[in-house]
Amino acid sequence: MGVGIAGCVGGSDDDTLSYISRGGITQDAERELMAEWSEESGIDVTHQEVADDTEMVELIAANPNEFDFTNPVSWAFELNRLEHDEELFAEIDLDQVPNYDNVADNWQSAPLVEDNPYGIFYYISTQGLIYNTEHADVSSWDDIKDDEYDGQVTLQNSAVSRFGNSCASLGYDITEAANDDDLYEDAIAEMEEQHQNVFTYWTAGDEFMRLLREEQAAVSEGWGGRAENLQEDGQPVEYVIPEEGCITWSTAFVVVEESDMKEEVYDLLNFIYERDNAVELTQAHKYPIPLEDPPDEITERAEYTEDPDDLVWIDWSDIVPLQQDLEQRHNEIQS
């Protein structure tokens, strides 16, 4: 089936591609589709699972010949720039992935991949609000401040996420807020206001899912794909992108610079971007691949967004200089 053991660094040979990603339901879905390609091509795909993009970049940097491709979020591209002189990822040859044309034009030029020669857009991921329909009804960031949710809200324990969604709540552009002292302080104040009903902060998706399942939380910051997983388990939850907007953790496919299997990676990516395969993968992991003229199977996904401009994109070159202060402020709010 082409599935390797998570946690073991795998190697590439002429009959194997090595893929590194963040595990969970998403990578399980990718395993299944990639196994179909393996049956056709005769080339297996091994899977390495990591906790986050920082670990992903660290492993690739330490073992550049051991991995062939991955799907980072924006933070990994920033790490590649800051710490590795943009040497970890290869420039994408779009001529080798003709089916990428099936992706909607506006998403092919989304901020994650616009002017970024190393990535092609993969799927939409947003960080909005999940709520228990038997105990809550929310549609905006202001709603989580309502007294009726006292001690029933959980948010992500991430200073950057909290700053980003606080900017979204205020209608601020993150870049402008990061470079304007008054707007920055407004966003910090909004972080504090959104904290008032919080009983705990979560660090991993499985944690907020547990809090919702156990009805400890009526409202949680989270990802729509996970909300759909809860719905499939019979949980009475809904996901909403708040009316003010929210941050996105959308991903892109990249090819590792040191891979000697680039041609095979391109063939696999071209297979994934075949329209039927992209729909199949979206249905499996719940994160929409934004096809041109998308079918209902994609537009009905909780996180489907027609226009990338409707989401809040983090420019890490603006955020990195502020990270220490953001962490300190975030910790002070929780204390």
Automatic annotation (TrEMBL):
Annotated keywords? Signal
Instruction: Extract the Gene3D superfamilies matched here.
Output: Periplasmic binding protein-like II
| Presence of keyword Signal | yes
Q: Where is the signal peptide?
A: none
Looking at the Swiss-Prot or TrEMBL record, what is one Pfam family this protein matches? SBP_bac_8
Q: Does the keyword Signal apply?
A: yes
Specify the superkingdom: Archaea
Q: Which PANTHER family match?
A: SPERMIDINE/PUTRESCINE-BINDING PERIPLASMIC PROTEIN, SPERMIDINE_PUTRESCINE-BINDING PERIPLASMIC PROTEIN
What's the name of the protein?
A: Family 1 extracellular solute-binding protein
Which organism is this entry from?
A: Natronolimnohabitans innermongolicus JCM 12255
